[in-house]
Target: Glyoxalase/Bleomycin resistance protein/dioxygenase domain protein
Amino acid sequence: MANPQGTPIWYELLTSDAKAASAFYERVVGWTIPAPAPTDPMAYWHIETANGMVGGMMTLSNDMTSQGARPTWLSYIAVDDVDATVKKAIEAGGKLLMPAMNLDKVGRFALIADPQGIPIYVMRGASEETSHAFERTGMGKCNWNELSTPDQAVGNAFYTKVFGWTYPDKMSMGPMGDYMFIDAAGQGIGATMPKQPDGHPGWTFYFRVPNIDEAVTKIAAAGGKVIVNPMEVPGGDRVLVAVDPQGVHFGLVAQGKPA
Model:
């Protein structure tokens, strides 16, 4: 994989109903999510944009749920050495949730959790092509990775040790704490913030859509629910947070209204 160490390369939805989820996200985000071939043993649904892939989705099996897996969005982070990264993660207070494994023509990957139990994949891809699943302004792509964590200091230190992330700037949110921006290999990929009393712990991924107000209408019509209403963020974009019909949190971002 040509992406630098510590940068996001793939996004994956684990869901209770991939067929229903694909219909929802096609309508809301505008993705194309073709059904997997009947011969695909993983029944993996690939998420396509007009300018390349952003990720995939799959229905949780009974075995996965019996081991604690729950519907959620996850990201894959590029690393040079999966096994060495897993070792670093454990030494830094994290846990191994799924041992490293190889998938033919895909690469080697493992699922870890940070010290607060928040899961994230680490991966060394088999392809030498660059992933563009994360693009700061790419339509349909993930534009921002936001971590809401019960212990921001410990969480930030963990990701620094494991991925080499730095936090070069921050924005005060008053009593809510600091919004600390993440730099990964020289590019801003998101931020971390303290989990609020009524907040959702974990990662929220913001995918770009053409119009945030139209997205609100589409979410309701498709059976989802907006839980953080559209608001303007520094830089002029507008964002929202919602849950899909299977109860999974996700974010959307769109260009703000002209001045």
